[in-house]
Amino acid sequence: MTGPGGIGPEMGFAFPPGSNEDTPMFVISVAAQLSGLHAQTLRSYDRLGLVSPGRTAAGGRRYSLRDIALLREVQRLSQEEGVNLAGIKRIIDLENQVDALQAKVTELTEEVAAAYAAAESAAAQIHASYRRDLVPVREETALVVWKPNRKR
């Protein structure tokens, strides 16, 4: 599987055991090199809340592959699209909100499907429990016409 920004096993990068594209693993100098930005730019983006890398116990920044892909996207939006940093932050926040809402919709859809299946199963069990011998059923039909007597 290729990680964000085209980094992954196909590009000669293998994830260490137990890690994935969200695992903080790159120091700031390596992240700067991978993203094509200066380390000071990464620090500025962190202060502005554009990219929030993980932290070591001592407070050092550790960037994940997803962080590096986000740094590249910030750079692209800024240089190619002409979006200012405030606009980029808003775009990132909205994309994160959309992702969270899509995940919630998926979760709720699965819950509704499970509830529907449970209701169908309960209804089937109830129908199966009916005792057909308690209520006699005639196989014939009759038509009765009722005409009330009119009192005059």
Automatic annotation (TrEMBL):
Give UniProt keywords alphabetically: Coiled coil, DNA-binding
What InterPro entries does this protein's entry cite? DNA-bd_dom_put_sf, MerR-type_HTH_dom, MerR_fam
Q: Which residues form the HTH merR-type domain?
A: 25-94
Output the Pfam families linked to this UniProt entry. Answer: MerR_1 (PF13411)
Q: Which residues form a coiled coil?
A: 91-118
In terms of PROSITE patterns, this protein maps to: HTH_MERR_1 (PS00552), HTH_MERR_2 (PS50937)
Q: Which GO terms describe its molecular function?
A: DNA binding; DNA-binding transcription factor activity
Q: Which domain of life is it from?
A: Bacteria
NCBIfam families, per database record: HeatShock_HspR
Q: Under which name does UniProt file this protein? A: MerR family transcriptional regulator
